[in-house]
Amino acid sequence: MRPEIRPAEESGPSEIALHDALMEDPRRDPPASALESVEDGDARDNYRVLLAFLGRLKRAASLESCYLEIFSGGEVAVPPLFIDQLAQIIVRGILEGCDDALEPRAGELFFREQKASTDDGAVMLADLETVEMHASGGSLGSLGRLIVESQAPLATVALEVLDTENAQAYWLRDQRHDFVISMNFGRAANKAFCRVMEKWIRHFFGVSVGVRPLRAIEDSAWAWHIGLDSESTAMLNGLWRGGEIEPGTLRRMLALFRLDFEDPAAMRADIAGKPIYMALSMNENGVVRMKPQNLLLNLPLASPA
């Protein structure tokens, strides 16, 4: 089971001292006595998790190597919150200087959960935390609750849809996470998501790939696929094996993509030159939890990068 950060009681003097020491010199390991002196058990456990993560960061040659190392040992021993924060820093660095605001918004899928709406065939994604904030008494009120219950299209409520025409507005409120994007085939945000995936792979491995949206997979020689989330992985595995997927489950698949290596020699020899199919899906509650590490760990490279 992954470690979790749990709520603690009000901070005591020993906890405040440990916090101040970490803030003053985060590269210095505090003495064991400083941790053991923290009275609240949950706070003490939280600091153990934090210190273990800081130790991992200090040992790593880079943030990218730290990110990859997290998934290299089988069981993941880092809280999802820390993994998402690492991914956020890396994605933001990759997109530094990007002119197309749709790319950083699409890039938020790499580290922020999304709430999906598929009413009338429109695949709309809104930031889950923002939706829940409004639904719990924020400015959207009852409309926000309708979004959470997937009873109303996201585009019809007071969350603005980000597209080519208004893309520059993103820079004015990117920290509010209140823009909805359409992931339908051919839409600008869908294409921007493809570009972010290309940059993510090139940044880590120095390998150039092309990613484009698909309407369907029509390939009798389908050789490789990558699920961008747990639901997609299960569905693609089932389809690849020739199994039947229940229509209700299959409807959770929101978008399909095809990835091609610019240089087939960079791929595993047994599938060199063949396309890689990918999918993005929501779970039964309409939540999209992307696993960007899948793009790295499941990429069929010719040799380890």
What key phrases describe this protein's structure?
305 residues, alpha+beta, 3 domains, 5-stranded mixed β-sheet, 4-stranded mixed β-sheet, 9 strands
Protein architecture, described:
- The chain is of the alpha+beta class and 305 residues long.
- The chain has three domains: 13-93, no CATH class; 99-182, no CATH class; 190-297, no CATH class.
- The chain is built from twelve helices and nine strands.
- Strand 1 (114-117) and strand 2 (124-127) form a beta hairpin.
- Helix 4 (63-70) packs antiparallel against helix 5 (80-94) and helix 7 (128-135) crosses helix 8 (142-148).
- The longest helix has 19 residues, at 41-59.
- It is globular.
- The model is unreliable at 140-146 and 150-157 (pLDDT under 50).
Report the radius of gyration as a whole number of Å.
Answer: 21 Å
Tell me, rounded to a whole number, the average pLDDT.
86
Helix content: 25-40%
Largest sheet: 5 strands, mixed
Structural class: alpha+beta
% residues in beta strands: 5-15%
Topology as a string of helices (H) and strands (E) = HHHHHHEEHHEEHEEHHEEEH
- Per DSSP, the total helix count is 12
Compute the number of strand runs: 9
Number of domains: 3
Task: Please list the strands of the largest sheet in the order they lie side by side.
Answer: 3-4-2-1-9
